[in-house]
Amino acid sequence: MITVEKVTIATVAERAGVSRQTVSNVINTPEVVRAETRERVRAAITSLGYRVNQAARQMRTGRSRLIAVRIESGSDGINGSVLDRFLHGLTDAATLAGYRVMLYTAADDADEIATYDDLLTAHDLDGFVLTSTHHGDPRTSWLAARDVPFVTFGRPWGAPDTHSWVDVDNDAGTLAATKHLLKAGHRRIGFLGWPRGSGVGDARRTGWAAAMTAAGLDVTGLSVAVIDGVDSGAEAAGRFPDDLTAVVCASDSLALGALRALPGRAVIGFDDTAVAHAIGLTSVSQPLAEAAARCMHLLTELLDGRAPATSTQLLLPPSLVVRQTA
């Protein structure tokens, strides 16, 4: 009979060459451990297959170690992958912190709030990570009124910063994309985006407009808005002036449409999806794994009573991935 030795914190500590307390800190309070040591301990945890004893931990803390996040349907199978990558990162970060992630679906804000009520009753959840924040978002106030811990991936868009959030600097992304085109000699650069009122979409348009204005260029007639999608993007791109030489887009889906409708023009997308990799589309990449890890860290601070007296807001910089289209 083959016996398998139980992996404990002591086993991980020995493998990583640290104390048991350091291993415990990496699991429960990673911010107090140096980054190099943290990575060494996490590598040992992974290689040994160590798992936190959730039953014992729940008895000790009185918590379920279970958090929930909404999974959204991808409208065209392209941009939906962005939140998929965020969820993957969140699950990784939650596992390292000794939490499990429950996924749920909802048709709209009202349906999601009703789901909160059901989940909190049925599963004794510790908290939520919210995505797709927007103007007038009622979800945060509902959770806050009931003292349910949560953080958001996305800022509150016009509402006061009363809760902790992590977001990507959308303005900076399209600003960098437009500057790249300007440096390449383009002067008639259009923006293909979403109808006004979307916080993310408006921010992405702002970055493009700021770069164009700073270069002394007129943006009149160079911005076209449409519902997200490849076909809609292709149709909308046909409305640009004939002398347009380049387009910055609010998504990779719109960029694919622009490539179809405007052959020979430089095109830049946003989100750096797998499709962008496959076809050589220059695109703005979001640091989704880092955003997920930061969200999880902020949530565990709340749950452990270690959060600062005021809410924390983190704005992460995106990066431009240059390929063949621009």
What does this structure look like?
By secondary structure, the chain is α/β, with parallel strands linked by helices. It has 3 domains: 9-51, 434 Repressor (Amino-terminal Domain); 63-168 and 288-317, Rossmann fold (3-Layer(aba) Sandwich); 170-285, Response regulator (Rossmann fold), CATH 3.40.50. It contains 13 helices and 12 strands. The protein has a 6-stranded parallel sheet, sandwiched between helices. Strand 8 (246-249), helix 11 (252-261) and strand 9 form a beta-alpha-beta unit. Helix 5 packs across helix 13 (288-303) and helix 10 packs across helix 11. The longest helix has 17 residues, at 80-96. The chain is globular, with a radius of gyration of 23 Å. The termini are far apart.
Concise synopsis of the structure shown:
With 326 residues, the protein is an alpha/beta fold. It has three domains: 9-51, 434 Repressor (Amino-terminal Domain) (Orthogonal Bundle), CATH 1.10.260; 63-168 and 288-317, Response regulator (Rossmann fold), CATH 3.40.50.2300; 170-285, Response regulator (Rossmann fold), CATH 3.40.50.2300.
Structural class estimated from helices and strands: alpha/beta
Strand order of the largest sheet: 2-1-3-4-5-11
Please compute the radius of gyration using only Cα atoms: 23 Å
The pLDDT mean sits at: 88
For the report, how would you describe the main beta sheet?
6 strands, parallel
SSE order in H/E notation? HHHHEHEHEHEEHEHEHEHEHEHEE
Helix content: 40-55%
The CATH superfamily of the largest domain is identified as: Response regulator
Shape: globular
Q: Separation of termini?
A: 62 Å
* Number of structural units classed as domains: 3
Q: What name is given to the CATH topology of the largest domain?
A: Rossmann fold
**Tally of alpha and pi helices:** 13
Architecture (CATH level 2) name of the largest domain? 3-Layer(aba) Sandwich
CATH class category name of the largest domain: Alpha Beta
Count of β-strands: 12
- The fraction of residues assigned to DSSP E strands is 15-25%
Give unreliable regions as ranges.
54-61
